[in-house]
Request: fold
Amino acid sequence: MNNDHVDNTLGIFPRSWSEKYAGRIPGNIPIWVGILSELTEFGIFFVAYFIAKYHYPDVFSKGPQGLSTSIGVANTIILLTSSYFMAKAMMHIRLDERDKCQRYLWLALSCGCCYLIAKTWEFYWNNLQGLSTSTNEFYTVYYYMTFNHFLHVGWASCAVLWVIFRLRAGQYSAKEHSGLEALAVYWHMIDLMWILIFPLLYVLR
Amino acid sequence: MKKLGRLEFFWAILIVITLFNTFLGEQFASTALVSVLVSITVMYKGLVVIDYFMELKHANKNLRWLMRLYFIIFPSMIIATVFF
Reply:
């Protein structure tokens, strides 16, 4: 019986996609199924944005002027910084420096909370300006996109908290930290989506 | 120590690009040049996060290719908006 090739992957992908042939998969396969699903979801939002902009160019040209650019910039810097902290946390767990890893995870979580507070304030500020989902087509797209992203940051922040508890329980080490790495790539994906959302809604007229 | 410095370098670059894009959007009317500059810089930001923060540069080439493709297609659509 030939047992020399033991495949511990899900076995549902072509062999050419496997770690053996295409290289290491950061985190695990299930998180990448999730990430690619999320990218598809946001991709549909972006396509909807471009279609709506094509049909309502004037509305999309004036739309960003009603938004608080400074809060948009602050949120971009917060998320980029959170990604940096997450990358540092990964670096330290690989060195088996759990205390430093935990410190950077708390910093990343703090950034996530700052983002959620700033975004809530932005929605409140918009409300004071009389802006809502039904103001015009731009704000319909804006609220769909940004509230969806807000939810992603919310549950990813809860996941960071869960990973911190797992780290404190000694579940991660330099040898085994795939769960932590899965969260890290998911967190970076959320940052990537904001990198696209920010210019579309706040910068381009 | 070398790797430590690289993360900080890319973080600073990403912040500078964000501020530059905001400056473009605030100071200039929407022109083809502004759209192209924003598109290229957004593409670059995405590729930096994919390669250095997500660490896909030396990881699975299919995942890296998919992620990079995403950040080529959507910023390119920003350039396409110039023509309609």
Observations:
- Residues 2-81 of chain B form one domain.
